[in-house]
Automatic annotation (TrEMBL):
One Pfam family this sequence matches: ABC_tran
Extent of the signal sequence: none
InterPro entries reported for this sequence: AAA+_ATPase, ABC_transporter-like_ATP-bd, P-loop_NTPase
Organism, scientific name: Halorubrum tropicale
Regions of compositional bias (Gly residues) in chain numbering: 239-250
Keywords of this entry: ATP-binding, Nucleotide-binding, Transport
Gene Ontology MF annotations: ATP binding; ATP hydrolysis activity
PANTHER family documented for this protein: ABC TRANSPORTER, ATP-BINDING PROTEIN
Annotated ranges, domain ABC transporter: 7-225
Annotated protein name in UniProt: ABC transporter
Taxon lineage: Archaea, Methanobacteriati, Methanobacteriota, Stenosarchaea group, Halobacteria
Keyword Protease part of the UniProt annotation: no
């Protein structure tokens, strides 16, 4: 259990062709699972890309108070992008061996952690979509980084595989900050400690899941999403108040959203 901040975005803006797809986003994450949700195009992948170090912010800063994305040869941030560039001809074990040579870690332990030990000798080309996703999660967790960033690890999977993939992702949250984007609101409801709702590149709500549900008077994350992401609560007006720091609602374009200490479940 820890309240320590492992990654933080301060006033991050990212533009493409002059259009801000992330607009002054500030938040910090600690151990536990933080789910980033929001409509298509709201900026989730861009936010995760910035957090992982793969996407440069146009303005603002990304901080890893305890070191990262790499400290010396040590990998401090693991990243599963939406499209994983694995080589079809490699086996699952060889794939993780390749990444372990770059970032450290034990490929066999990483395979075991996501339940893929029996598939170690299978070629990537012969893995199902779900197994590829699990391999991707194993790759992101390799070397036990402090921050694990997973972009839609459950997309396109059947219900059983979705559950398995999300559980595998969430398990890393015991010791690391796991930040996962997802449209699977039932899984977010079941496994996320904290939730960030993005709308049009801005944070519309953020904080511990239970607190957000309480504050909005809703029963689950799907209802929270309908209220906040769809904009039925007026969250887009710049009402000023911070989220967690102000002790009030995590909505209203919170200028500095705090999502640390999410592991006290
Ligand atoms: N490399 C890029 N070049 C130009 N525009 C981009 C680039 N990456 C993202 N965008 C634009 O930024 C906006 C946000 O995209 P992003 O992928 O971050 O959203 P998202 O919330 O992850 O969407 P989805 O749920 O569909 O995956 C979109 O309008 C997208 O077209």
């Amino acid at each position: 259990m820890s309240d320590r901040t492992l990654a933080a975005l301060d006033g991050v803006t990212r533009t493409y062709s002059g259009v801000a797809v992330l607009d002054e986003v500030s938040l910090s994450v600690g151990t536990g699972v933080t789910a980033v949700i929001g409509p298509n195009g709201s900026g989730k992948s861009t936010l995760l890309g910035v957090l992982s170090g793969a996407v440069e912010p146009t303005a603002g800063t990304v901080r890893y108070p305890e070191g990262g994305p790499r400290s010396g040869s040590e990998k401090r941030v693991g990243y599963l992008p939406q499209r994983v560039p694995f080589r079809d001809g490699f086996t699952a074990r060889e794939t993780l061996g390749f990444y372990a040579a770059l970032a450290g870690g034990d490929p066999d332990a990483a395979l075991a952690a996501v339940g893929l030990s029996d598939a170690a000798g299978k070629r990537v080309a012969d893995l199902s979509g779900g197994m590829r996703r699990l391999l991707g999660i194993a790759q992101a967790r390799l070397g036990d980084p402090d921050v694990v960033v997973l972009d839609e690890p459950t997309s396109g999977l059947d219900p059983e595989m979705r559950e398995r993939a999300f559980r595998a992702a969430a398990r890393a949250g015991d010791d690391a900050a796991v930040v996962v984007s997802s449209h699977d609101l039932d899984l977010v409801d079941a496994h996320a400690d904290a939730v960030v709702v993005l709308r049009r590149g801005r944070v519309a709500a953020a904080g511990r899941r239970e607190r957000l549900l309480d504050e909005r008077g809703v029963d689950d994350v799907a209802a929270l999403y309908r209220a906040v992401a769809a904009g039925t609560d007026g969250a887009s007006s710049p009402a000023g108040g911070g989220a967690e720091e102000g002790g009030e609602s995590g909505g209203a374009d919170a200028e500095s959203v705090h999502v640390t200490g999410v592991s006290d479940r």
